[in-house]
Amino acid sequence: MKKQVWSRRAIVQQGFLAAGVAVLPRRIWAQDSTAVVKTDLGMLRGETIDGVHIFRGVPYAEPPVGELRFRPAGKKKPWIGVRDARSFADSPVQTGEPGVKHSEDCLYLNLWTPTPGGVQGKGPWPVFVWIHGGGFTNGHAFEATYDGSQFAHEGVVLVTVGYRLGVFGFLNWEPLLGAAYEGTANNALSDLVAALEWLQRNISVFGGDPARITVGGESAGAKLTDILLGTPRAQPLFSQAISESGGAERVWSKEASADVAEGFGKLWKDETQTAVAAMLDAPASALLDVQTKFLKSWPQHFPLRPQIDVDLLPRLPIKSIGKSEGSKRLLIGTNRDESALFIGPRPEHDPTAQDLGNVQLPRFNEVFAKYASLYPDMSDELRRIRAVTAEEYWIPSERVAEAFVNGGGSAWMYRLDYAPTKGRMKGLAFHSEDIDLVWDRTKASPEAGETALAEQMHAAWLNFLKGEPPAAAGLPVWPQFTQEVRSTMLLNIPSKVAEHPQQAELLLWDGLL
Questions:
Q1: In total, how many domains does the chain have?
Q2: Which CATH number do you get for residue 142?
Q3: How are beta strands 91-92 and 102-103 bridged, if at all?
Q4: What are the pLDDT digits (tens) for 86-136?
Q5: Which DSSP helix (H) or strand (E) runs through 34?
Q6: CA nearest 295: which of 319, 263, 272?
Q7: Is residue 483 part of a domain?
């Protein structure tokens, strides 16, 4: 990289300290391959690549280490001088991922922003804040798929956010460590709120419009997006949302959260022969070892999740969705055969308690028993996939859409029906298939029509980000979702709009989800 030489005049004009005078620049200042911006916490040096300003590893909260371990996100302290923002921060602590650096010091975000001029104009531009998935225990903000350069070239500021995972982000430490740790099952949620608050204060200097922030994600990222829709403190911080395979059901009561914590504490003592207080200083690897065994032993999927508390989540999110001031917009949907990715395209067993995240097994079996008469021509294996998909993703997403429009918001619903024509997932629209399509990562796909569908979906999402209805050349007109008609875009080759899709199946879940 070419060494940058800063003139005294440039330093004074662009906001560095010179002769004791600080000047706050309005936007990013760039020269050659270097980009510099002044935030409310200090100066950042990023880089410019192919007409896109990129800032990586930008801190938005204090590192949750030392005395802050297991505590909610705290406001980041300012720094002196110019902080380098040209490298990604470490991934949140998690299992697996050889070759990837992990750390509890993980509260950082990354930004890709257009350079003024060209088709992007001068800004301010809409902002897309992407929350990665990974089941609340895995994932990170610097996946190659989530490179925001393409969105920036198209006039959107793209932000990816790191947040705490597993027991660091979703375990209620109060029953184990005392009242000072109340509500700590919401640590990851507090991380995301802190990131959104930072963006509200700072996104304008990156060229973004704080009044046009979209929060979105897939899988766990979509669930957190939907929960943020029902988080009163978060509601003023963004104007619209995109939920891909989400739902707002993945929340414990305080009592259930305490049960999970006590179960983890008991396993910790059994496995390590140490007191629970030892977890305050234990290596992260020791906590992960116990977490891995705990996840396998707990009699329900995803025991680590947010909880109802007096601060961030005073009630179930679904009861607060749509209650915020002002009308928000929502793009939401699921994939037709989500659960094929988890129970397999050729399921070897009926659903168990550990396949289910939202209802207990006996109640699920009552509904599942009716699938044979509802879909008599469907194979047993496909009925299993559809029922678990409904329990995990489809019904929770329908409930979010219902609550959202009942609260006065505007929503557009989709179902991804496109399925590969060969390979292990042949004929199945499986979980996560939408990611490459939305991010337009299917160039030169061997599947006939897949590249065209990706271009359509990416364009529809892009229009939504810019405040328009989700629309693209080649897609039918996409009506808004209402509870009366439930218009849904069935994304496929070709796509079509359906009214009341899977209505009989939806009725099976009334009163349960």
A1: 1
A2: 3.40.50.1820
A3: parallel
A4: 999 999 999 988 889 999 999 999 999 998 876 677 889 999 999 999 999
A5: strand 34-38
A6: 263
A7: yes
Cα–Cα distance between 148 and 297 in angstroms, integer? 38
Which residues have CB under 8 Å from 273's CB, separation 6+?
none
| Residues of the domain holding 98 | 8-251+301-508
- Look at the pTM and tell me if it is higher than 0.85: yes
- The Cα–Cα gap between 362 and 217 comes to 31
Scan for tokens 């209805």, then name that residue. Answer: 469
> Read out DSSP for 427-465?
T---TTHHHHHHTT--TT-SSTTHHHHHHHHHHHHHHHH
Q: Are 508 and 367 in contact (CB under 8 A)?
A: yes
Closest among 299, 298, 329 to 480, alpha carbons compared: 329
Cα-based distances in Å from 389 to 5, 198, 252, 356, 496: 56, 35, 21, 10, 21
Would residue 48 count as lying in a domain? Answer: yes
Q: Is 290 part of a structural domain of the chain?
A: no
Is 294 within a domain?
A: no
For residue 386, give every residue at least 6 positions away whose Cβ sits within 8 Å of its Cβ, in sequence order, or none. Answer: 337, 371, 375, 378, 505
Q: Read off the pLDDT of residues 145-158 as tens digits, 9 standing for 90 and up.
A: 999 999 999 999 99
In this structure, what is the dihedral angle of CA atoms 401, 493, 476, 461, given to the nearest 10 degrees?
50
What would the two tokens of residue 218 be? Answer: 């897939």
Nearest CA to 399 out of 346, 330, 449 is that of 330
